[in-house]
Design brief:
The chain is 33% helix and 36% strand. It is globular.
């Protein structure tokens, strides 16, 4: 399993436009094969800092997502307009946090 977690940093003036674009991509992303979890939330919209958390079945699923018809144009539009401070982890031994 692949886990991505971290922040996206944007110009605060782009927050509304980015929010609309990411919401359009999020619903289709959650339906993609291999997507186990996908969530984004503004931690501080006034500062342009968004938290992102994703879980993917495997690297193949994540790669397919990044190359998907909806994802690629989003990344092309926003790639140079945001700082990506997201790390990727290989995860194993998943269990409830109460265990």
């Amino acid at each position: 399993m692949i886990v991505l977690i971290g922040y996206l940093h944007l110009n605060p003036s782009d927050v509304n436009e980015f929010t609309a674009d990411v919401q359009a991509v999020a619903s289709s992303t959650r339906a993609e094969k291999g997507c186990l979890f996908y969530a984004v939330a503004w931690e501080d919209a006034r500062a342009g800092r968004m938290l992102i958390v994703e879980r993917w079945q495997d690297q193949e699923s994540l790669t397919a997502h990044l190359e998907a018809q909806k994802t690629a144009p989003f990344l092309q539009k926003w790639g140079n307009r945001m700082e990506i401070d997201v790390l990727k982890y290989d995860a194993s031994n998943e269990r409830s946090f109460m265990e």
